Structure formats: structure tokens, C-alpha cells
Predict the 3D structure of the following.
Amino acid sequence: MDAYDHRTIGQRQDLFLFHADSPGAAFWLPRGLTLFQELEGFVRDHMRAAGYAEIRTPQVLNRSLWETSGHWDAFADGMFRIAGGKTLGADGIRNAEGELADSRDLALKPMSCPGHMRVFGARVRSHRDLPLRLAEFGLCHRDEPSGALLGLLRGRAFTQDDAHVFCAPDQVAGEVTRVCGLILRVLAELGFDDVVVGLSTRPEVRVGSEADWDTAEALLAAAAAAAGLDPVLQPGEGAFYGPKLEFILSDRMGRRWQCGTVQIDMNLPERFESAYIGPDGDRHRPVLIHHAVLGSLERFLAILLEHHKGQLPFWLAPDQVLVAAVGPDQQRAAQEVADRFKAAGLRASVDVRSESLARKVADSVSLGIPVVAAVGARETVDGTVTLRWPDGTKEVLYLEAAAARLSAMTQRATRRRRMRRETAA
């Protein structure tokens, strides 16, 4: 692995680790979990601003639910299935008569959509409730082949920013246009402007009628055009329940990774007998729009770390500023500076080791900490700090001014994101 592989960065910066105890899943360390939570919070803010209600659905669900959704048959190879505490293979566990085990069979969820169908169907819905937008940061498990595992880029356990919009047919175009704008806006704010969009159509293994597929593909293609997109056709690459738009990023090695998706689904509402009461008082079938802004948060973090070569933007970095004591006499002063920065809402750490300042700066760069605040004898007497910026330049500021400057950097990023959301809305 080279120096900018996300697995190398993760080890060097104490973000996460991998172990044979859980192949295909990461152990998140404190700095890495901070980074993960910051990214999750960034997406959550966008989703709330777009009118989504966040929910959480169970990790383990009964076989009957997966049979209703079609996953038990169409997605069998990708699911961890359980019976009596034993993991099932793709063919399940059969009894003496050769039949599959009974309804006690369970499965770890590979995706959140069936759970969201249950939430929608929990009570009578009116046309006034639509569009109903639900979101979840769902921990998913998929039985990926061991040879396909690649750190955070492809694993067996990942967090998906899963969202579903239940809407009337005449709301589909507007909702897809809005979702596409949301995805492209978030990706741009994270530094990805070069995004390829693919239109994936019906796969060989699928559920639902050909008429429903015709309708869904036509709706999605029209909505993509209305959103100003010119997607590349990807025949046969759709999900088994519906066509999808795929938002594809290229990493620094030229590898292509599918991140955000938008899918139109006529099948799950039919299979779950979902309905809403229309203005005419009759029951009507909603259209379901599945979408994810980043897809797997773990995968996206890997792409982000490699894209920035481990030097993340100030607002996202696990530690935003390192307070470095120049000598042993400044240890207490350095801790006080770090405490002041923390009080200003900054993620600050302190280095009081008996190492040279040059060594501490080099270590901060290796850890991906954007700013170093040096506290020496003169700074202690004057009540100042010397800030070393990411480009290597230095600036001496009084402590309160430094805290205000650094805090404003985070606030400016927040304001820019808010303004972009408001402008888009």
C-alpha cells in the first residue's frame, strides 16, 4: 500500500483498524469516530433542511419481511441469514423433508427499505402526507466475497444514508429533480465536482411486471432530463426492484466508485400493498423513491481521505488545531490555550512532549491536523499564540483573537453550506 491509500492513512492517523476477528468491518478509533460523526452530521443537516424525518429500524428482521420484499430470493447471496443462531448459506438450512427452515429464520438487513415500508404502512396515509420523506443512517451487512473486500471501500458492514420518499405519481419528477440537486450540491461541498451519472435499467433477475418497469424507467429518464442531467445508459445494471441513477466518483487512481443513488420503485409498494387516501377518497398506490446522498459513509470516507491525501478541510478534520508547548515551562500555558479553544467549540489537542517544535509540527501534519498553535516563552508572557497555517505561513495573534479566527473558519463553512441549501430550496 502507498502512503495515500486510505488504509495507510487510517493507521498513520489512528482513525480505524481492521482485524481478522471481523473481516470486512472496521474498528473505529476515537479520532476516526469523530471524523465519521462529523460527516454523518454534515449529511444529517442537509437532510433535515430538505424536510426528511429521521427514523431507525431494526438490524435483524424476520424472513417473512424479506420474502415480501423479494430479497430472500433475489438477494440471497448477499444476505447474512440466521436460523437457530446459525448463519444460513444461500440455500438456507433444510429440514428432513428438504424444506427451508420455518418463520424463525432471520436476516441481518442489507438495506433499510423494507423497514421503511413497514413505517409507512403503520397507519392510514393521506395524500396530504405526501411527499413523505424518511431518512436513516442504517448499519447494513452484506456477504461480500472475501476476494472483493478492500478496506472501507468495500466491506461487509457499512452505514448507508438511506432515504425514501413516498409520493404521488405527479410528484415524482419534482422529487427526483430535488434529490439530484441535493446529491450534487453535497458532493460539490465535499470537493467533488467531476461526477458521472449513470442510468441503470432493468436487470436480468428482477421482480415486478414489465409494465411497471416500463413506467419506472420512463419516469426516471424524464426526471433526470428535468434535473438537467444527461446520464450514461447502463443496461441491465438496475436494482432487482427498480431502475436507478448512479452518481459515480473517480478516485486519485482513476477507479470509479458508485456513491449516491436515486431509484424509482413501483414494486415494493405493490408487494407491501402500500396505499394512501387520495382527494377522491379512494386508495391509491404511492411511488417509492429510494436514494442515498453518499451511499456507504465508510466508502465515501475512504475516497475523501485519498482525495485529500489525508489532509482534510478544517471543518471536517478530527483535530482542527494542535496546541504545541515549545518547552517544558509552557506545558501549563499550552493546556490553558487548548481549553480556551475547546470552549470556542474547536476540536483541539495538546502536545507537551519533550520533543522539538519542528518534530511536533511534522507529527501534526502526519496526523492531518490543519493548524498548529505554538506556545513558547514569549507567547506565554504576551498572551499570544503563533498559528501555523496549512500552507506553512505563520501568524502571531492574541489568544482571544486566535480563538475567534479559528472558530469563524468553522462558522463560515457552516454558513456557506446553509446559504447553498437555502439558495437551492
Summary: The chain has 13 helices and 22 strands. The radius of gyration is 25 Å. The chain has two domains: 6-59+109-307, 321-421. The first strand starts at residue 16 and ends at 17.
